[in-house]
C-alpha cells in the first residue's frame, strides 16, 4: 500500500474554516475528528481496503463464446459470511490491457456453500480473450 502523503493531517482544524458557522467548527468537526483519527492511524499502519471491508478480488481470463450462458466461471469466496454483492471492477482485453474496451458487460451470479458461481457473461466478442476482475463483498 502507498504511504499517506506528508500533507495528510490527523484532524480537521477549526481555524481552517474561519467563515464556517460555529456549529460546524465546534460540534461537527469535533465529532468528525473522532472518526478521522483512528482511520488515519489504521491507514498509516498499512490497513488495506480488502482487510477493512471483508472483500475479495478475483481475476478471470475468459474467451468469449457466441452463447453468453457458456461464458461461465466458479471460484471460492474468501470473505467471511455470505457474499452480498459481486461487482465487475475492471475489464480488459487479455492480449493488450492498454487497448480500450468500452462495450458493456453484464453477468449473472449466485453464491453457494462458499463458491461464487457466474452463470453467464454477456457483451464479450466471440473468440476474444478477456481479463475480468470482480470484487466480492
Task: Give me some keywords for this one.
137 residues, alpha+beta, three-stranded antiparallel β-sheet, 2 helices, 6 strands, elongated
Strand order of the largest sheet: 1-6-3
Helix count? Answer: 2
The main β sheet shows up as:
3 strands, antiparallel
* Shape by Cα distribution: elongated
Describe the structure.
The chain is an alpha+beta fold. It has two domains: 14-44, no CATH class; 52-136. The protein has helices at 22-44, 49-52, and strands at 56-63, 73-76, 86-93, 106-112, 115-122, 129-136.
The gist of it:
With 137 residues, the chain is of the alpha+beta class. The chain has two helices and six strands. It has a three-stranded antiparallel β-sheet, with no helix packed on it.
Topology:
Layout: H1 22-44, H2 49-52, E1 56-63, E2 73-76, E3 86-93, E4 106-112, E5 115-122, E6 129-136
Antiparallel strand pairs: 1-6, 2-5, 3-6, 4-5
Amino acid at each position: 500500500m502507498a504511504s499517506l502523503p506528508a500533507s495528510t493531517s490527523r484532524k480537521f482544524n477549526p481555524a481552517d474554516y474561519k467563515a464556517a458557522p460555529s456549529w460546524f467548527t465546534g460540534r461537527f468537526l469535533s465529532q468528525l475528528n473522532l472518526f478521522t483519527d483512528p482511520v488515519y492511524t489504521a491507514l498509516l499502519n498499512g490497513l488495506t481496503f480488502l482487510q477493512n471491508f471483508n472483500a475479495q478480488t478475483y481475476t478471470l481470463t475468459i474467451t468469449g463464446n457466441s452463447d453468453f450462458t457458456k461464458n461461465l466461471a466458479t471460484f471460492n469466496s474468501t470473505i467471511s459470511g455470505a457474499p452480498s454483492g459481486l461487482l465487475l471492477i475492471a475489464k480488459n482485453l487479455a492480449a493488450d490491457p492498454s487497448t480500450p474496451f468500452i462495450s458493456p458487460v453484464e453477468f449473472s451470479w449466485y453464491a453457494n456453500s462458499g463458491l461464487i458461481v457466474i452463470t453467464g457473461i454477456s457483451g464479450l466478442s466471440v473468440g476474444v480473450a478477456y481479463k475480468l476482475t470482480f470484487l466480492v463483498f
